[in-house]
């Protein structure tokens, strides 16, 4: 069951990243983050009210607050690193954030079996290769590497924090709601600062293009929420280390979505990486 939830996480994160990537071609990245997370917060707020989630409020919610602060900061570092490029280095390098939840699991006493250790190595290698690392070409700026590493650690921290933010499903809805509220506050503050500095927050045409794209923006936010939720469930049914690696297969999903929708051709190294990632997931599930 843990493997199913973790693989669902990778699917949802992959689709969310793909959708977010398409939308950032039309709108500023901060606008996409704030609007998508606000839409998710509205839906989660209704679920929390309907399920009586407020009764689950407690000290664990501070983990959700931390995840809500760290997440947008990591995303902003990631977008900045992508702008500095090259993307073929930045994207796969960001997946090393998986070491954070894996390390947490090991500290808590989890000890994967031999097949699972092999699966972790194979899957992580596959994810990095599936991102299409640029082994040749323009040199990478040190700032891009530094920002990518900060983003990777932030993404990994969010995975660890959201897994610790609740003890049951009702509490999980509340934790995700609190996380999204913090996402909106942090992202909205950054957006306001950006606008004050003269950076436009809206595309040509003003609010109308954003309004027309609201369903797509909401999908990105809700897919991200669902991914966080399924990952938290995955960590409850199985080892954190295994769930974290399986959940980190999302770059493969993004690459395949780009191949199917945008007709982007996979390079040989990407195809090999996708195959390794799938092989690693089989080993992890079998172990």
UniProtKB/TrEMBL annotation:
Q: Which InterPro entries match?
A: EamA_dom, EmrE-like
Q: Which residues form the EamA domain?
A: 3-130, 144-284
Which spans are transmembrane here? 28-49, 61-82, 88-108, 115-132, 144-165, 240-262
Keyword Transmembrane in annotation: yes
Q: Which UniProt keywords apply?
A: Membrane, Transmembrane, Transmembrane helix
State the family it belongs to: Belongs to the EamA transporter family.
- Entry's PANTHER family? ACYL-MALONYL CONDENSING ENZYME-RELATED (PTHR22911)
The protein depicted here goes by the name EamA family transporter
Provide the species name: Streptantibioticus ferralitis
